[in-house]
């Protein structure tokens, strides 16, 4: 009998990890990087390299799983509303604007 125990929650992860299907996932990752300082930890593309099957992105101490939509397989993008806690909201807002968002944008 093998006595080795596997951690229920992998190192660096939390109990709940959002998995988002996003139309234009690569562009979204670039925006997350520019606007929120995200770090892309992993990316797996489909054979042509044009769509993302799975990517892992870290923003602060939180990890997101993201992928492109694949409607032919039932994977379609859906709206989501993330909450982002930051130390300096003015700096985060300025980064968001540099990431291409308008000040009055709801998203």
Could you walk me through the main structural features you see in this protein, from its secondary elements to its overall organization?
A hairpin with a 6-residue loop joins strand 2 (39-45) and strand 3 (52-59). Helix 1 packs across helix 2 (89-98). The chain is 21% helix and 24% strand. The relative contact order is 0.20. It has 2 helices and 4 strands. The chain has helices at 25-36, 89-98, and strands at 19-22, 39-45, 52-59, 62-68. The mean pLDDT is 87. It is globular, with a radius of gyration of 16 Å. A 4-stranded mixed sheet has the order 1-4-3-2, with helices on one face. It is of the alpha+beta class and 107 residues long. The chain has a domain at 19-70 and 87-97: Signal recognition particle alu RNA binding heterodimer, srp9/1 (2-Layer Sandwich).
Q: How would the blueprint of this fold be written?
A:
Layout lengths: L18 E4 L2 H12 L2 E7 L6 E8 L2 E7 L20 H10 L9
Parallel strand pairs: 1-4
Antiparallel strand pairs: 2-3, 3-4
Helix pairs in contact: 1-2
Write a brief structural summary.
The protein has 107 residues and is α+β, with helices and mostly antiparallel strands.
Q: How would you describe this structure in keywords?
A:
107 residues; 2 helices; Signal recognition particle alu RNA binding heterodimer, srp9/1; 4-stranded mixed beta sheet; alpha+beta
* Unreliably modeled segments: none
Main sheet record: 4 strands, mixed
Architecture (CATH level 2) name of the domain at 19-70 and 87-97: 2-Layer Sandwich
What is the CATH C level class of the domain at 19-70 and 87-97, in words? Alpha Beta
Q: How much is the average pLDDT? A: 87
């Amino acid at each position: 009998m093998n006595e080795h125990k596997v951690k229920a929650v992998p190192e660096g992860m939390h109990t709940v990890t959002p998995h988002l299907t996003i139309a234009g996932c690569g562009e979204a990752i670039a925006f997350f990087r520019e606007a929120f300082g995200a770090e892309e930890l992993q990316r797996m593309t489909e054979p042509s390299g044009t769509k993302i099957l799975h990517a892992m992105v870290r923003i602060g101490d939180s990890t997101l799983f993201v992928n492109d939509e694949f409607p032919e397989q039932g994977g379609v993008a859906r709206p989501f509303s993330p909450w982002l806690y930051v130390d300096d909201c003015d700096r985060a807002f300025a980064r968001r604007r540099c990431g291409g968002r308008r000040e009055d944008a709801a998203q």
